[in-house]
Amino acid sequence: MENMEGMVGIGLRRDISDEIIESSVLTPDFLEFAPENWMGIGGYWNRIRKRAVEKFPVTCHGLSLSLGSPEDLDWDFIKELKVFLDENQVKIFSEHLSYTKSRNAHLYDLLPIPFRQDAVDHVVDRIRQVQDFLERPLAIENVSYYTPVAAEMSEIDFVTEIVERANCKLLLDVNNVYVNAFNHKYDAREYIGKLPLDRVAYIHMAGHEQVEPDLIIDTHGQPIIDPVYELFEWTIQQMKPVPVLLERDYNFEELDQIQSELMNLKGLIKKHWKVSYATS
Ligand SMILES: [Fe+2]
Q1: Distances (CA, A) of 247 to 1, 11, 73, 84
Q2: What is the distance in A from the centroid of ligand 1 to the CA of 248?
Q3: 3 vs 166 pLDDT, higher one
């Protein structure tokens, strides 16, 4: 991405907007918005959004496109989204490879799309329609899942075929690969090695929670664990520089710890990638 290679960002949450925009408690290089949380709002939070866009490059990570749903795409939403992306000069727009709506009811969770050929055809067609309308590539994210629903192909074949046929980008969530590899007992490096890494638009990193000896849940509320840093360090040596985003959705009490995570990611990036921008 133009001028963003090797930058380290964080999701802009209202709880930490002051610490990012009004002070330097947290020092990301770019910000990620969930557009649904910032579209069509006025007043104080609209002023914060404008300040954020003045100060930082912005990526957007959508929550409600519901690429896997059987219903028609929500074109009213997509039209508003295009205006929002243009207004905020959004560099990259990403979405989950999942569905969040069924018969027009929002399910408020990211459900896995069945790893099947008919689902591939369906999702490829929808990604192409969205990209054509938005006039920018869509980066789709590998999601964490806890039961493969009606699988008739492997996860890696499913993701790779969609990305190649839709001619879209990939948002590589390294923590999600770790979580899925752990829960479904496959090799995380082998999985990442098979992905079309030249299509990665940016990387997500996050913490997770181990709830059972054999089950971890992707929560975005805990610090990144060492094995996920190790997987990240291995991954970035397999690919060209891209932006890297720390996902943190709650537990904002330990700001020092979150800042140290941003610094850890920067340290690993500087070690392995030649990046030209001035790091803080
Ligand atoms: Fe993610």
Answers
A1: 19, 6, 27, 21
A2: 10
A3: 166
Q: CA 276 → CA 1, 51, 93, 244, distances in Å?
A: 13, 25, 23, 15
Tell me how far the alpha carbon of residue 173 lies from the centroid of ligand 1, in angstroms.
5
How far apart (Å, rounded) are the C-alpha atoms in residues 32 and 9? 7
Give me ligand 1 centre to Cα 204, in Å: 5
User: What 3-state DSSP class applies to 105?
Assistant: strand
pLDDT of residue 214 exceeding 90: no
pTM: 0.92
Q: What is the pLDDT of residues 234-264, one digit of tens each?
A: 999 999 999 999 998 878 778 999 999 999 9
Which residues sit with Cβ closer than 5 angstroms to ligand 1, an ion? 173, 204
Name the nearest CA neighbour of 132 among 172, 171, 166, 165: 166
Question: Crossing angle of helices 174-184/226-236, nearest 10°?
Answer: 120
Q: Which residues pair with residue 173 across a beta bridge?
A: 204
